[in-house]
């Protein structure tokens, strides 16, 4: 039994990360079993990050935090509409984050938040890149313990918005690569259509994931949301709304950026068609001119050229000379 308890404890530690920020002491990663949430002081803040959507695991975590009536079943769901619930001692909601990888479509990652006095609990599947970056950046002793949980929440939500900016940057990088390929004539029509469909789909996904957050952010910044309105972080949520609207604008503008790729391709295709028609016209002119000369020589009349021993080869050489001359002239005039 002791061995089984050790294994369960190890799994718990792997899936649950707890960070205690102490403005007057040390910032440490701690075991949740060591923390008495009721004993936390005003200059202390606890962030609990759960890396697995598991109802029994979440129940154990909330019990350690002494939080009651948490809708664990709703929290562990990784799909559905974004929603927000307010309780007497805490509130919870979920947001859609974006996982961005080079040369790949963005992927959706839902993150749930449970926020109470002196603690913030986040729940998601796997690692969240901007959470890890935040931890790496804030190593050592920091003043984060001075923040209340609502202010710390605003920081994490701002990082979530930044994930959409990163996704837009990756889209624009892919667009630049396609633009370069079009100008270098390295993209076939079928490949281009596949790329355009992928880009349009990715932009639509980003917009579909981002826009529903408007209701969440507006709810958090309203005066009737007393947990935030009565805290020192109300101004931060106004700035958060502005940052959110900037992200929406960036996603909307990315749609125009994607459409500009098609315009570039259409322009390049028109130019290539025009060049082809020019060359075809010149070829018609060239062959027509040689046909006229050959037709004249084929008329029934007497001429000294027909008495020459190598008259046929002189005629062929003359026709080649005319062809080469016309080609040089066309290249000089940039017709071909």
Low-confidence stretches: 1-9
> And the CATH topology of the largest domain?
Beta Polymerase, domain 2
The shape, in one word, is rod-shaped
Q: What can be said about the biggest beta sheet?
A: 7 strands, mixed
Distance between the termini: 86 Å
Q: What would you call the quaternary organization? A: single chain
SSE-based structural type: alpha+beta
- Mean of residue pLDDT values: 84
Full CATH superfamily name of the largest domain: CorA soluble domain-like
Radius of gyration in whole Å, from Cα?
Answer: 35 Å
The helical percent reads 55-70%
The assigned CATH architecture of the largest domain is 2-Layer Sandwich
Question: How large a portion of the residues is in β-strands, by DSSP E?
Answer: 5-15%
When the domains are counted, the total is 2
Write the element-wise H/E pattern from the N-terminal end onward.
HEEEHHEEEEHHHHHHH
CATH class of the largest domain: Alpha Beta
Q: How many helices in DSSP terms?
A: 10
Please tally the β strands and state the result: 7
List the helices and strands and how they pair.
Layout: H1 2-15, E1 16-22, E2 28-30, E3 44-50, H2 55-64, H3 72-76, E4 84-86, E5 90-99, E6 107-116, E7 119-123, H4 129-137, H5 149-183, H6 189-210, H7 213-221, H8 226-229, H9 234-297, H10 311-332
Parallel strand pairs: 3-7
Antiparallel strand pairs: 1-2, 1-3, 4-5, 5-6, 6-7
């Amino acid at each position: 039994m002791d061995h089984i308890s050790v294994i369960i404890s190890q799994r718990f530690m792997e899936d649950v990360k707890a960070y205690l920020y102490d403005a007057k002491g040390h910032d440490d990663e701690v075991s949740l079993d060591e923390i008495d949430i009721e004993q936390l002081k005003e200059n202390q803040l606890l962030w609990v990050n759960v890396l697995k959507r598991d109802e029994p695991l979440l129940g154990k975590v909330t019990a350690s935090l002494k939080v009651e009536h948490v809708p664990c079943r709703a929290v562990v769901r990784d799909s559905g509409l974004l929603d927000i619930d307010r309780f007497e001692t805490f509130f919870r909601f979920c947001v859609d984050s974006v996982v961005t990888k080079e040369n790949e479509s963005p992927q959706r990652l839902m993150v749930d938040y449970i926020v109470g006095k002196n603690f913030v609990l986040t729940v998601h599947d796997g690692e969240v890149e901007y959470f890890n970056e935040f931890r790496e950046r804030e190593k050592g002793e920091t003043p984060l313990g001075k923040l209340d949980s609502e202010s710390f929440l605003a920081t994490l939500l701002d990082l979530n918005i930044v994930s959409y900016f990163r996704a837009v940057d990756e889209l624009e990088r892919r667009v630049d690569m396609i633009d370069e390929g079009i100008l270098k004539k390295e993209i076939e029509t079928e490949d281009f259509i596949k790329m355009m469909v992928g880009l349009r789909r990715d932009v639509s996904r980003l917009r579909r994931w981002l826009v529903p957050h408007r209701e969440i952010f507006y709810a958090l910044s309203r005066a009737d949301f007393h947990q935030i309105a009565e805290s020192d972080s109300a101004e931060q949520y106004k700035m958060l709304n502005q940052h959110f609207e900037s992200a929406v604008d960036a996603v909307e503008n990315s749609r125009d950026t994607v459409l500009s790729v098609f315009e570039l391709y259409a322009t390049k295709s028109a130019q290539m068609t025009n060049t082809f028609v020019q060359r075809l016209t010149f070829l018609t002119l060239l062959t027509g001119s040689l046909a006229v000369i050959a037709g004249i020589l084929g008329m029934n009349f007497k001429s000294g050229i027909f008495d020459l021993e190598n008259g046929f080869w002189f005629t062929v050489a003359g026709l080649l000379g005319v062809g080469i001359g016309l080609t040089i002239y066309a290249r000089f005039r940039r017709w071909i």
